[in-house]
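Field log, afternoon session.

UNIT: design team B
ACTIVITY: writing a sequence onto a fixed backbone
BACKBONE:
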């Protein structure tokens, strides 16, 4: 006759970890341990599959975001040719992105990423500088010296203060 669970369903023996598990209602002995073992097994299989492969880097991330943007443009646009070009380019980028992630040729993928970083270096530095300025302006004000045009950073919220230029030693009064 066999074992039965709380709801009178038949209980089977899990082949993977030898726990008694209900077939239909997920109740029974060791069900949570069984689920955890299944998840761990998939994670380990994925880690073993990815061993020796290149994985993601900045160039792959850029291609993924660009492909997503092109796909959105293709879905929003009403022009047939633009839609097809954007969609085809997005699909090609996704395929190449996946090829790079699963590649085992580390040297070649590393060189591709280095070329990408060199080509986008100016833009990335400009964006970092701009982001730093935005963060700095929350807590500081920037003033220009009236005589030598030197930029001077002063903390916000100090009221009316006398500012001395570090370059020409000119003193001027400003409100922060």
């Amino acid at each position: 006759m066999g074992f039965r669970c709380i709801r009178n369903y038949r209980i089977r023996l899990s082949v993977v970890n030898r726990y008694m598990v209900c077939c239909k209602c997920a109740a029974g002995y060791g069900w949570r341990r069984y689920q955890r073992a299944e998840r761990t097994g998939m994670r380990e299989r994925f880690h073993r599959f990815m061993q020796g492969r290149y994985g993601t880097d900045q160039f792959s991330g850029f291609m993924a975001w660009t492909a997503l943007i092109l796909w959105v443009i293709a879905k929003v646009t009403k022009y047939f040719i633009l839609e097809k070009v954007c969609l085809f380019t997005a699909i090609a980028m996704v395929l190449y992105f996946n090829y790079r992630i699963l590649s085992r040729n580390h040297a070649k993928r590393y060189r591709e990423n280095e070329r990408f970083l060199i080509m986008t270096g100016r833009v990335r530095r400009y964006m970092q500088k701009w982001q730093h300025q935005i963060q700095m302006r929350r807590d500081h004000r920037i003033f220009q010296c009236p005589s030598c045009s030197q930029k001077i950073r002063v903390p916000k919220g100090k009221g009316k203060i006398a500012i001395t230029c570090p370059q020409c030693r000119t003193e001027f009064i400003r409100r922060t």
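LOG NOTE: DSSP finds five helices and six strands in the chain.
NEXT ACTIVITY: expression trials, pending approval
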